[in-house]
Amino acid sequence: MFKLHEIREIIKLIDQSSIHEFKLEWEGSKLSIKKNLAPAEPAQAPAAPPQPLPAQVQPPAPVAAPPAVPVQPAAAPAQPAPAAAAANAAEEANLHTITAPMVGTFYRSPEPGKPPYVQPGDKVTTNTIVCILEAMKLFNEIEAEVNGEIVKVLVEDGQLVEYGQPLFLVKPE
């Protein structure tokens, strides 16, 4: 049987994620949670938002395009940026990405006030602990998976992460 605080924690995690439906069967108990994607209004309201949503999603793209037009006339600064972006993309292609093996809250250090497990520039081995992911009051230590050097931390401390979300970039040795 699930305890109330466990159910509340699951609801909180699902609410903060992009998960729309969650089902769990454990020790003979079943739990099913579905997100209400539309605001609670009269029966006609849920049918209306799906149509305006694409319209709301599309206007930001045209709005984003006009600011790009003024940036293009400044041709000298704009040319190095694509070259730098291409160099960064090529560099990142050679990096190993440590991803989240589960949904949970990301913590860089073993407890508040302690130094982070790893910082950019730190050397790691396959069994070096790089962070903790907390899910339902369980703290799971995440290991580096590869020998190398931490190049970048991609997640903020205390941030909720999704399954498969990139956490670190590592330059393999």
Question: Can you offer a commentary on this structure?
Answer:
The chain has 173 residues and is an alpha+beta fold. It contains six helices and ten strands, in the order H-E-E-H-H-H-H-H-E-E-E-E-E-E-E-E. Among the domains are: 4-35, no CATH class; 93-172, OB fold (Dihydrolipoamide Acetyltransferase, E2P) (Beta Barrel). The chain has helices at 4-15, 44-47, 52-57, 60-71, 75-78, 80-93; strands spanning 21-26, 29-34, 96-99, 104-107, 123-124, 129-135, 138-143, 148-153, 160-161, 166-172. Strand 1 (21-26) and strand 2 (29-34) form a beta hairpin. The longest helix is centred in the middle third of the chain and has 14 residues, at 80-93. It is elongated, with a radius of gyration of 22 Å. The chain starts with a helix and ends with a strand. Residues 45-79 have low confidence and may be disordered.
The order of strands across the largest sheet is 3-10-8-5
Largest beta-sheet details: 4 strands, antiparallel
The total count of helices amounts to 6
The portion of residues assigned to helices is 25-40%
- Unreliable segments of 5+ consecutive residues: 45-79
Please give the CATH class of the domain at 93-172: Mainly Beta
Structural class: alpha+beta
Estimated radius of gyration: 22 Å
Q: What's the CATH architecture name of the domain at 93-172?
A: Beta Barrel
Strand content: 25-35%
Q: Encode the helix/strand succession as letters.
A: HEEHHHHHEEEEEEEE
| Mean pLDDT reading | 76
Note the overall shape. Answer: elongated
**How many beta-strand segments?**
10
CATH homology superfamily name of the domain at 93-172: RNA polymerase II/Efflux pump adaptor protein, barrel-sandwich hybrid domain
The span between the termini is 47 Å
CATH topology of the domain at 93-172: OB fold (Dihydrolipoamide Acetyltransferase, E2P)
